[in-house]
């Protein structure tokens, strides 16, 4: 079994020699030619690092940045299968900086979300990354939702979220003039940001600190070396061999896997358990026409139903000034399938055989049917949105046109993890 991250002790030195095919060194270029890192390198038949992070999304890049800032003497590399960084889940989300109100008090999720939001605002300030602390209203539109809203408010207070208020109809109007509701939670510390921009800033910090990024490197296998590479003076100092789909390889002492939608498969390659399995769901968003964006000032969310694993359709402002309405949640037939007809036989078989989908579907059958209906019939989604902002009509929504049109129907994908057996 390959250790996901063994205890860091006694490892030192800088990254070795560059690797053809997209190696980005601290002072190198993306020319594709092997090039040693600044600060000295030495020849080797393979690239070798003390630590390798698999996955160039925001989690992998944040992990790489944190490691190299805490352990600057280590050589650390990031492997990314695409030619660019942060192009999948990091670049396919609503961009909301959540406050942490939804999570169970004292849970790790709650603590990380509350602390992470504060750290993210601080980081964006330091780096000059644009963000908007536009706030969020969680709105009850039915009388039966009010007890759940009040319970959520108490949970937010227990999680230490600052500035929370329970507000009535008149205050809802002050915050969101076109929004209707009986009662709402005002969460002023919720914001929005372009997470891909944040991730690329993490990558820049990482490389400036001496880290290396290897793109176009799709990991195919992770194994323990049986012998030292030929002509290598490293011996067995770097016992882990990571191979890509082109037959190229690098060696390292420790591996950290942050592979997003493929995290279960990469975990299994590393010798660890693949559970929880990934079940991919696609989220469909509507884009409000630009001349109607005045209807929404900040994030507007429904009261979540704890019986279901999603937050529901909501109104989300974006950094470019657009307003997204959604998402729904429908089963995707490809892990990185951002369009409704994207299909992968491998992914579909994996869903059927390994993911516990039948149990997941049986527990959420009515919700799933509703989501499929809303995905097929645009009017059903608009009718739901009108509970919050009655001025939104089907006429004001964009047509389902080509992906190059600015007022298109947007297809995005996120993942729901499932550990049912």
Automatic annotation (TrEMBL):
<protein>
    <recommendedName>
        <fullName>L-2-hydroxyglutarate dehydrogenase, mitochondrial</fullName>
        <ecNumber>1.1.99.2</ecNumber>
    </recommendedName>
</protein>
<keyword id="KW-0274">FAD</keyword>
<comment type="similarity">
    <text>Belongs to the L2HGDH family.</text>
</comment>
<keyword id="KW-0560">Oxidoreductase</keyword>
<feature type="domain" description="FAD dependent oxidoreductase">
    <location>
        <begin position="50"/>
        <end position="338"/>
    </location>
</feature>
<dbReference type="InterPro" id="IPR036188">
    <property type="entry name" value="FAD/NAD-bd_sf"/>
</dbReference>
<dbReference type="Pfam" id="PF01266">
    <property type="entry name" value="DAO"/>
</dbReference>
<dbReference type="InterPro" id="IPR006076">
    <property type="entry name" value="FAD-dep_OxRdtase"/>
</dbReference>
<dbReference type="GO" id="GO:0047545">
    <property type="term" value="F:(S)-2-hydroxyglutarate dehydrogenase activity"/>
</dbReference>
<keyword id="KW-0285">Flavoprotein</keyword>
